[in-house]
Design brief:
Largest sheet: 5 strands, parallel
CATH topology of the largest domain: Rossmann fold
CATH superfamily of the largest domain: HUPs
Radius of gyration: 20 Å
Number of strands: 7
Strand content: 5-15%
CATH architecture of the largest domain: 3-Layer(aba) Sandwich
Helix content: 40-55%
Shape: globular
Distance between the termini: 36 Å
């Protein structure tokens, strides 16, 4: 498959439009920098002022919550917030079958940094039924989009509920630039979405497959009493200087992971991700994370050489269920799925929560 020589974007990706010289449309027409830089400068100033103001929050044992997955970005965020900014950090993990390497990273980093930790494990039966239903009823953008953008509001909302319960003013997420998609969040979730919108994915509420006790897993501020104090939800890496390789180097150097290999997103991500990628490779012919990493390469935040080698290797493992790609088979067995069950049946936007319908 033809790929952009500058950012590795495959020609099959919508709007790639690779020309005769091998360069994609996104590399030929980069986003104008002045406006973007001005917005980022304002956001950076806001972030620094917000972190300063949050220090030693009155009436709370903590200044911020960090959703902690065991990946490099959330690990390094813990360090920066506690050590560089002097904040009292509470780590929060939503456990949906994290890989052992992620748990080792989590335990190691929490010991090193001496940080408190809360783990939330949604009922196994609920998660099994949820993921099975989503993979059997994907929306038009495929498995990664469908599952990620139902699961993300689940754990984001849980972090918000925890912040409200403990009087913590900030939730600070380790989303790298480009995560999540810009229409969901650019630096901050719109406060109106945290205060005024039910985050339950609309199709799940309407399909009849999930009970009221299932849907209560999703955050809904409309059920909260008047006078509730809501946190802000920010993504510091959206405004801080970011380089994927540098983050891996730093978490290794700081001893937050045992070795640099453990900081790789390839080994520390959720095992079900391999099944999601498998489904999308079958339906679309390219890895759904490729556009995200291509964007980081274009912005100088990820290594072209690294992903030039790793992308075809990862795709080979997924397609052939070899190496880490064996997680495809394991997840299919867990969910009771066959190849024919991985179906796209719904239109684009069927699961979109309010933060997609009403971007900040």
């Amino acid at each position: 498959m033809k790929k952009c020589i500058r950012c590795l974007l495959p020609e099959i990706v919508p709007d790639a439009d690779i020309d005769a010289s091998g360069v994609c449309a996104f590399c030929r027409h980069p986003e104008p920098l002045p406006a973007a830089n001005a917005a980022k400068a304002a956001q950076r100033a806001d972030l620094e002022a917000t972190l300063q103001a949050a220090r030693n929050t009155a009436g709370s044992a903590y200044d911020c919550i960090v959703p902690l997955s065991g990946g490099k970005d959330s690990l390094y965020l813990l360090h920066r917030l506690k050590v560089d900014h002097g904040l009292r950090v509470l780590a929060f993990t939503c456990d949906i079958d994290l890989p052992q390497v992620a748990w080792r990273n989590i335990r190691r980093a929490l010991r090193r940094l001496d940080i408190d930790h809360v783990v939330w494990r949604p009922a196994h039966g609920f998660l099994t039924r949820l993921f099975r239903y989503l993979l059997c009823n994907q929306e038009a953008r495929g498995a990664v989009y469908t599952v990620s953008y139902v699961y993300a509001p689940l754990f984001e909302g849980a972090a918000i509920r925890l912040a409200i319960e403990k009087g913590i003013p900030l939730v600070l997420a380790g989303y790298s630039p480009g995560q999540p998609e810009p229409e969901r969040m650019q630096y901050e979730f719109n406060p109106a979405l945290i205060r005024n919108e039910d985050w339950t994915p609309p199709h799940l509420a309407a399909c009849g497959e999930f009970s009221v006790s299932d849907l209560v897993h999703f955050y809904n501020p409309l059920t909260l009493p008047p006078g509730t104090r809501f946190p802000r939800y920010l993504a510091p890496y959206h405004v801080w200087d970011y380089d994927q390789g540098e983050v891996i180097r730093r978490v290794t150097e700081l001893g937050l992971v045992q070795r640099s290999h453990h900081a790789s997103p390839i080994v520390s991500n959720y095992p079900i991700n391999w099944l999601m990628m498998y489904s999308d490779l079958r339906h679309f012919g390219y890895n759904p994370y490729t556009p995200e990493f291509s964007a980081l390469i274009r912005e100088g935040k990820a290594s072209l050489g690294y992903w030039k080698v790793m992308t075809p290797l990862v795709n080979f493992m997924i397609r052939n269920k070899l190496g880490m790609g064996r997680e495809v088979k394991r997840s299919m067995e867990w969910l009771g799925l066959g190849e024919a069950d991985l179906r796209i049946t719904l239109p684009k936007g069927a699961y979109d929560p309010p933060m997609l319908r009403q971007p900040a």
